[in-house]
Specification:
Layout lengths: L16 E7 L7 E2 H8 L5 H9 L3 E3 L2 E2 L5 E2 L4 E6 L17 E4 L3 E6 L16 H8 L24 E7 L2 H12 L4 E9 L6 E5 L1 E4 L7 E4 L9 E10 L2 E8 L6 H8 L22 H13 L5 E9 L6 E5 L4 H16 L1
Parallel strand pairs: 9-16
Antiparallel strand pairs: 1-6, 2-5, 3-4, 3-6, 7-8, 8-9, 10-15, 10-16, 11-14, 12-13, 14-15, 16-17
Helix pairs in contact: 1-2
Length: 344
Amino acid sequence: MNTEQPFSEEQDEELLFEHHRIVADAGQSLIRIDKFLNDRLANVSRSKIQKGIDDGFVMVNDKPVKSNYKVHPNDVIVISFPEPPRDTDIVPENIPLNIIYEDDELLVVNKPAGMVVHPAYQNWSGTLVNALAYHFANLPQLPGNEGKPGLVHRIDKDTSGLLVIAKTEKAMTALARQFFDHSIERTYYAITWGVPEPQAGTINVNLGRSLKDRRITAAFPAGDFGRHAITHYKVLQDLRYVALVECKLETGRTHQIRAHMKYIGHPLFNDATYGGDQILKGTVFTKYRQFVENCFKLIPRQALHAKTLGFIHPHTQQFMQFESELPDDFKAVLEKWDSYVQHN
């Protein structure tokens, strides 16, 4: 089911399409329905949920309710919208793919920054999956992952770099197992604000959806919330106020590198979601501020690139490793910072 559909601004009195059906557990404690749904539906704000309830899009046991209704054990909650669900409606689009490797079982692509991996709310077209649907027929899907053919992992819209795509059921199962076992080798290059100290280390801190803002991932160092997450990092280039850092993922949580680097005080350069789009290191001089603003314009996204990808081939059982070039925007910013520290 698609959990990213927003509550509509107006209701069609004649026909509504069911998008979500949630059955409360037998041991469900009494909790307001707006809070209950806020915990269940990703990327939907509580105010949107409340408006949807007020507009009559939410029914409990076939009856409309108010936002302060308390969910009871075994309640059947149905959310409907005027438009039919689009979570499995994949429209093939002739979008060029940068294919690094391909055989009968899989392919490895180099995704550009700005491309969404799979269709979702506000991004129903122009995604990697739309391109895959055009270039390849009958890609497999993981159970419960309808609408995402070929995908066994993903990277953020504004992160560039390598992805492996499964072309067969066998490849899908084998690759998914490697991701589940954390045996996939993934190396990212990031530009961070400041130079991490020590210059090589491991961040072993739980990550989970922020309790204050569900759109972002937060660190939970006490370990009483979130999921186990490990990132190994190493500074490759010290550029005084920023650094080129290699990050190796041992686990693969949402926004893992972005959240972990934020946690240790070094957000990714120009990462608006995690505060990296502000000047966090350096001088107060106007000339420096202008220099940084020019760098932001060169790379209008978080400075993160999936550099290498390694896995055991599902058919040959041989280990394969792929490496991608840094994209032009990434290289341009590094060169600009390198020139700055050489001359200032």
